[in-house]
Specification:
The protein is of the alpha/beta class and 241 residues long. The chain is 37% helix and 26% strand. It is built from 10 helices and 10 strands. The protein has helices at 45-52, 75-80, 98-105, 113-126, 128-132, 143-156, 173-188, 200-206, 224-228, 231-237, and strands spanning 5-16, 19-30, 34-38, 60-65, 68-69, 83-86, 161-165, 193-196, 209-214, 217-223. The strands form 2 sheets. Strands 6-7-8-3-9-10 form a 6-stranded mixed β-sheet, with helices on both faces. Strands 2-1-4-5 form a 4-stranded antiparallel β-sheet, with helices on one face. It starts with a strand and ends with a helix.
Length: 241
């Protein structure tokens, strides 16, 4: 069950020069939830995520995480607070081994050697293929394995909130199901998730709540299952008449 509000965007506007890419977005993620933001190409999904991470902060409005306004922080300071993003395109380190890539994710997680070992074991439990390939260079993995590695690396930093940008992009249908079942498993362990996803069907089946963004504005917000049954959503994003 969802608890208190963890992340809240209030009237967030994001500009690139004279172009306003996001126009007054309000969005919430509560403790324990999976929340999805769906929309077409160029709707403002990734831009919103980049603003939360302070990669390109908002021009107006506020982004509040655990009661603290993040506006004006550097992106590394946002990471230190436990807001961890798995970017679109994975961005793993191709010349480093799987094990080394995972280590890169662990810099935030101050803990004992045993705690570090436990979290590594948990990642290998979620993604057995990574364990098999732990000495292999990240760049030699398949697209699906690289996505697993990107999520595994994010988990190494003990996220307070995990943000996933298009995790299913370019993956075979079977691997898409694997990734989404892992997202549900991660969430069941108490990690809230903000999911940006073009596969609206899978996103809404997985999430608790959803937002629909079009040309930088939130046009719909509801329980994910209700959005799944919404005629407007079915027509625009699920390819149904």
């Amino acid at each position: 069950m969802a608890g208190k509000t963890l992340l809240e965007l209030k009237e967030v506007r994001i500009r690139y020069g004279v172009i306003e890419a996001v126009k007054g977005v309000d969005l919430k993620v509560n403790e324990g939830e999976i929340v999805t933001l769906i929309g077409g190409n160029g709707a403002g999904k990734t831009t919103t995520l980049r603003a939360i991470s302070m990669v390109h902060g908002p021009s107006e409005g506020s982004i509040v995480f655990e009661g603290e306004d993040l506006t004006g922080l550097r992106s590394d300071e946002v990471v230190q607070r436990g807001l961890i993003q798995v970017p679109e395109g994975r961005h793993i380190f191709p010349n480093m081994s799987v094990q080394e890539n995972l280590l890169m994710g662990a810099f935030r997680a101050h803990g004992t050697k045993q705690e570090f070992q436990d979290i590594t074991d948990r990642v290998f439990q979620l993604f057995p293929r990574l364990k098999e390939r732990r000495k292999q260079a990240g760049g030699t993995l398949s697209g699906g394995e690289q996505q697993m590695l990107a999520i595994g690396r994010a988990l190494m930093s003990k996220p307070r909130l995990l943000m996933l940008d298009e995790p299913s992009m370019g993956l075979a249908p079977q691997l898409v199901e694997t990734v989404f079942s892992v997202v549900e498993e991660i969430n069941a362990e108490g990690i809230p998730v903000l999911l940006i996803e073009q596969n609206a069907q899978m996103a809404l089946q997985t999430a608790d709540r959803g937002y629909v963004i079009e040309t930088g504005e939130i046009v719909l917000e509801d329980d994910a299952k209700k959005l799944l049954g919404n005629d407007q959503v079915r027509k625009a994003y699920l390819g149904e008449e």
